[in-house]
């Protein structure tokens, strides 16, 4: 199976930014792929930084929309960190919406974004950016190694899915819409992937070699989600 020589979107879990040992490996790998001719746009999650601020804000009685803004700020800070580490190839400053993302992409530099607006997961942002740029492949470096029928950390009978359609996955996932509690892929993100005919490759963010294998060889995804 061939690799991703066409443009792809790389969604990075915010959990990656909680690991000071793993993050430099991703910086080096993204630079290596870019220099080798692979073209991508990167979307970063908020991770524990977002969850901490949302938790603090909720304790202060802040409403959900404003809590979402805190999470968005955290995801953009992660994007800023990554782009700064890749400043030799990355576009700065961090785009804040689709219009700015498109303008940044036309410069030919690596574009890295975080969240856009309240009520919207970074998974949804990744799908919107993909649709905007005509990207048909998205790699989701997640905090899980694959998609399961239920949470494997809570359900010993959870089944790992090697391949699943968006329609099938819609029937499995249940959306939670409180700030900071989005699922791996929420229904809105999946609906955009479906209309944009975007295939999703789920890999563990703890295994950078899995990302490299999917990009360069087209193999090694934990789950392939087909539109």
Summarize the structure.
The chain is of the alpha/beta class and 227 residues long. The protein contains 8 helices and 9 strands. It has a single domain, classed as 3-Layer(aba) Sandwich (Carbamate kinase).
Number of strands: 9
Given as residue ranges, the uncertain stretches (5+ residues, pLDDT < 50) are 175-182
Tell me the strand order in the biggest sheet: 3-2-1-4-8-9-7
| Gyration radius, rounded | 16 Å
Percent of residues in helices: 40-55%
Helix-strand pattern: EHEHHHEHEEEEHHEHE
Question: Largest sheet at a glance?
Answer: 7 strands, mixed
Approximately how much beta-strand content do the residues carry? Answer: 15-25%
Provide a count of the helices: 8
Instruction: Just name the CATH architecture.
Output: 3-Layer(aba) Sandwich
How many domains, as an integer?
Answer: 1
End-to-end Cα distance: 19 Å
The oligomeric state is single chain
> Mean pLDDT, as a whole number?
92
